[in-house]
Amino acid sequence: MRLLCDEERIPQQGAMLLGTLEQAAVLCLKEEGIPDERVEISLSFVSMEEIHQLNKMYRQVDRPTDVLSFPMIEDFNEIDWEDEEEEILLGDVVICLEQAQKQAEEYVHSQMREIVYLFVHSVLHLLGYDHMEESDKVQMRQQEELIMDALDLKRSV
C-alpha cells in the first residue's frame, strides 16, 4: 500500500499520521479481501477555500466540506489481481484540515483521530461504499467503526 501525499502540506503529526493512515488503508483493503501490495491512494490536505471550490466544481455543492473522495475504479471485477507489475490507483482523497480541526473540537477528540476517521470514510467510498440509503449508511458506519477500533481510535462519546 502506497500513500501518495504532498509532504509540504502534511499536518503537524507528520510521519506518525501518515503511518496510521497507511495502516488504516491496509485494514480497509483487507476487510474487502483486496491485496494491498500494489494499491496506491493519493492524499491531499487542503484549505477551506480549496475544498469549497472542489465541492462546488465536482458535486455542485456551494459550500466547504470535510473530505472528498474521487474513486478511480468502477468495477473491481475488472482488476487483474494476479498481474504483479501493475500498480492500482484506488483514487484520490482530499481532506480539509480546518474543517477536521473544527469537527475534532465539536466531537471532543484529537485532530489526528478526526483526520484518520475522514480518511477511513473516504477510502471506503473509494472501495464502493456510500451512505445514500439507510441500509448502506449502517453498513458503512459499521466498517468505519471496525477499522477505527482496530486502530485503537474509538469514539470518545
Topology, please?
Layout: E1 2-5, H1 14-31, E2 39-46, H2 48-59, E3 67-71, E4 88-96, H3 97-107, H4 111-126, H5 134-150
Parallel strand pairs: 1-2, 2-4
Antiparallel strand pairs: 3-4
Helix pairs in contact: 1-4, 1-5, 3-4, 4-5
Would you kindly provide a written description of the structure presented here, covering whatever features stand out?
The longest helix has 18 residues, at 14-31. The protein starts with a strand and ends in a 7-residue tail after the last helix. The chain has helices at 14-31, 48-59, 97-107, 111-126, 134-150; strands at 2-5, 39-46, 67-71, 88-96. The chain is built from five helices and four strands, in the order E-H-E-H-E-E-H-H-H. The model has no long low-confidence stretch (mean pLDDT 92). The protein has a four-stranded mixed sheet. It is of the alpha/beta class.
Quickly describe the structure.
The chain has helices at 14-31, 48-59, 97-107, 111-126, 134-150; strands at 2-5, 39-46, 67-71, 88-96.
Query: How much beta, percentage-wise?
Result: 15-25%
State the end-to-end CA separation: 31 Å
Mean pLDDT: 92
Helix content: 40-55%
What about the largest sheet?
4 strands, mixed
Low-pLDDT stretches: none
Helix count, per DSSP?
5
Assembly type of the chains comes to single chain
Number of strands: 4
Shape: globular
